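During the first year of the project, the team set up a workflow for recording each protein of interest as an amino acid sequence followed immediately by a discrete structure-token representation. This format lets reviewers and collaborators read both layers of information side by side without switching files. As required by the reporting guidelines, we include two representative entries from the current panel. The first entry is reproduced here exactly as it appears in our internal archive.
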Amino acid sequence: MKINQILDKIDGYQLFVPAFQREFVWKRDDAKKLISSMLRDYPTGTMLTWETNSPPELKGEYTYDHNKGSVKLILDGQQRITTLYLLIKGEIPPYYTEHEIINDVRGLYVNIKTLELEYYKKTIMSGNPFWIDITKIFKNETNALQIIKAIKEQQEIDDETQFLILDNISKIQQIQNKEFLEQTIPVKANIREAIDIFYIVNASGVNLTDAELALAQISGYWPDARERIKEKLFELEKEGWVFKLDFFMYVLLGCLHQVGSKMEKLHGQENLKPLKETWLELESNTLDYVFNILRSQAYIDHTKEINSVYALVPIIVYAFRKKKTKMTDAEIKKVIKWFYYSQVRYRYISQLPQKLDKDIGIVSNENNPFDKLLNIIEAERKLEITPDEFIGVGVMHPLWALMNWYLKSRDAKCLTTGVSLRKNMGKKYSLEWDHIFPFSILKKNGYGWENRYKYSLAQEITNRAILTKTANRTKSNKEAKDYLNEVQLNFPKALVLQSIPTDTRLWELDNYEQFLQTRRKLLATQLNKFLMSISATSDEALTMSVEELIEQGENSSLELKTTLRWDLKLNQINKKLEEVVLKTIAAFSNGEGGTLIIGVNDEGRIEGLHHDFATLTNGDKDKFELHLRNLVIKEYSLDFATNNLKISFYEIEEKEICMVEIKPGLKPLFTSLTDIHGNKTQKFYVRSGNSSQEVSLHEITEFITKRFDK
């Protein structure tokens, strides 16, 4: 289908976008690349459409009328088509509102001589007739004669350049006549099948996140979901809490399924009733409750102060699970303390789904979850803040946010107006940060960007004070000593409340770096005291998840086996593999104990137990455990199998694995192994490093004496 036909069908309400599609998120650079590719006749992708008599909810104000027959929907290619609509027509397509255009890509300029594309830059475009808004060319609001005339008014132009301009304008206008290869889903497909295809198409690329695909699936069985969630999103945004739709998918996943990964758990129709009930509770109660707690007791006024909003997910899940009783004051303080440390110690800077999995699991199952969560952070990085952590740190660092929260907790005052730093009324009293030692003065004294290290010291957060907007606008670039003397005179407690050294000698320009050192120590001491005083937390024992255990790899206390009895190379049952498992169990028992995991190869890849299950009649994990225990009983005794083994099963990546925990034995175990002739021989094994080693005959007696005769 030609591009101009696509756009006309959109205007004529013959081509639609389903409500489960995300908002327009392409950026200006994406738009430039698309137009540049089209001007060069490069491939620009395909369009996937679905013609149906039973469409899902549609984006925009149009309401589907069943009497009008089938409609055609854009399932893939929507971002490209919207980009072209915006640039060619200069308007927002009817299936979007202005609020849904996250990045407005209109206003793209083209150099009519070189076909270079760029968004408006005054330095190169002002008064330059070669740069034209490309939408004016598409809409025929300017033509070649007008452009050439404007150029001639400023400079001479030869025939060759005039012909080049004519050719380039034709190239631009011909974009509308280019074909978008269309692939069509059959009319007979139902909504679920169409969304599955949409999922497969997008999952093969990088266009959609797992959370966006989950929302698309939800919208298939709950058409109002996107609008309901967006309504709450806009409501929170007015209060300073700005989130993307992805965030709420993690919240719903945590509340419904107590995990932070596996978004596919939200895909099924079976979620409809619990999902609606969960969202009703969240939008009407839990979300407002949590954000009011954060504002009133954690001194967080908006999400701009937060390094990672995903640290809010475990808190929301916790509050959701306690919706009937609410949190106690002690619980709230522990939540706040953990949240602060999650920010300054970058808890969610990487491996977001995996870490949310662990943290939400703890929140859902532990009695003192935030004590344990705090211990996890401490296990990864020391909690205590040191003065050196401030060196060269700018206002984008979470230490700056922590400083803000701490100063607001002290009811610190604006240095110029004396107004409290807590959230104030009116835009002119919103908070800003200002250099205590003015940058203009520091720059003249060697702290400019020519010296990277010195520049970072000039911008360091220890050279910042928090002022109201009105104060920052009126504050001149006075030397620090003059400005701080005025503050000390007008508002005697203001400097102390903002943790600014009051030793006047440090206010001298020559002592600037000494001022920084002193304030670093002061802030480190005060912030540590502040954090530790929020709440007493207990040293909850930290358990390692099975996934984390596997990630550690084989060692003296862990062995990984792909299968119990199925030989993947020979594609058949192999009894020798069972002997290897028994040998491993004996080696751990003869040593200090250990863990055997079956269903994972030695590289840590999850293989699962399905091959072994298939070798057993009506095989499942119960039959697997019975078979394994019978092997152990036959080889080592019922007493050993009952008292020295703990067998558990876990599901990872939708595959079952078996964990066998072996206690150190009270007596030596010998294992019968079959040689190539079918003869049985007794062997004695112990764990050494990451393997089970045979103990030679002349060493066995000495080893047994030392290990068991005590």
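The second entry, processed by the same pipeline in the following quarter, appears below.
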Amino acid sequence: MTQALTRTIRQREAQLERAVSRLRTIAGRIPGVVYEFRLEPGGHSHFPYASDGMRQIYGVAPEQVQDDATPVFSAIHPDDRDAVVVSIARSGETLTPWRQEYRVRLPGDRLQWVFGDALPHAEADGAITWYGVITDITERKQAEFALHAAHLETRRFREALDHVGSYIYMKDRDYRYTYANRATLTLFGCDAESLIGSEDARFFSTDTMARLHALDRRVLAGEQTTEEVVTRDADGNRRVYLEIKTPIRDGEEVVGLLGISSDITLIKEHERQLEYLAHYDALTGLPNRVLLADRLSQAMAHEQRLERYLAVIYLDLDGFKSINDRFGHAAGDHLLVTLAKRLREVIREEDTLSRLGGDEFVAVLVDLADTRLATPLLRRLLESAAQPVWHEGQRLEVSASLGVTFYPQAESVEADQLLRQADQAMYQAKLAGKNRFHLFDPEHDRSVRSHHESLERLQQALEKEEFVLHYQPKVNMRSGEVIGVEALVRWAHPERGLLAPGQFLPIIEEHALTEALGEWVIRRAPGPGRRLAARWPEPCR
């Protein structure tokens, strides 16, 4: 063997050793678990390879899942387990990247959120193999970097990292790239050799580069970071990346950083859509019941402080069902959307118009110096609702019934009570002929409620045997003979004592309780064989 050949072999061995060392450094710094997951044709699944990060992510040892993945799925939160299984199956069927957020329950009943990112590979025997990483994205603690590469071959390191959809890279203390996986190289449009020594200015805009350098400075100072970075792609589209970065140390000295960047644009977009659907009506775009409740509560507190009024208007369309029945639901939806726009234009910018569902709307008018100021707006709402709407050459016409209540009131009321009051008033408007508004009367409502409560209490008194009979003789004044007795009903009230008839009989006048109490008196009065006159007594003597 010539000296030149010997030197060449030694140089290649040194290069291989450096490559192995670099990959071990990468795996040892990756926050989470690097793994190979295999789904056999029969449905059996296992992890031929998993780094020791499996303990931190799932609370199980890698050797426990080499032949059976059950311990991993058992560690997944029960509420998320089905979604994870479905997403894995979908990825295997379509051979598209698997990306999923879910919770894991660790020993001690501790929960953490994790993000899985892997690419599937179809094997010749019909099995599907995923190569990927799962990282801890729990905001309450920093990601732990416990992956190490003892006993892992160079090929498996490269294969695992290059099959990961996330962007994995390393930088030195001067912010220059020293390593990147295949996904990162594809993103940057360069190869591994040309990447070495490059800076972010080569790949990112000035603004994005400044943001990335701000994160890098913190990491190179010894901090681990997990943050979202918003940027624009080549077409100007907004992209969101989850950037997880950790220092690379040589002993106590920080010599560089390791970063994992995951594209979470779709996840953030879904979150935005869910947030919108949670607070807005999907058909009209108006605030829904949830957002209405929040705005109404805030408005009530605001008006209370300023000693001004707000109005709650419950609006129900008259004749909407016939529109659906005659012209179809598409016409009905068109009518609702059109009227929602018209009604929103009638009220002020600071007011709220919401749709509760169906043909029911609620408007909240704020900052009223006087309740009478709402009347012109109520008329405009009625006029706007009554204007015809055209759909595919058909003239659609409805009217509206409005129920109105004001706040504050003499008695303390909650937001849901105001809605019920306005709903009751709207019902009265319909009874009065529709296409009009009706104002809720708190005084009348209190009187009705008080009467209803008194009737309920008298019904309870009858059921609890709280009534008693007092008797007084009926005497023939000429002969002095006792010819009968008169039964006098009294209420032995547990708190108020013995009550005379005049204190409770007027309440049940023209009510079924009158007959029930009369029957009770007859049952309790002296039986047959005695002369008796049973009648309602006069005021107590």
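For the second entry, the following points were noted during internal review. The CA atoms of residues 309 and 370 lie 7 Å apart. Residues 141-154, 528-541 have pLDDT under 50 and may be disordered. Both points are flagged for discussion at the upcoming steering committee meeting.
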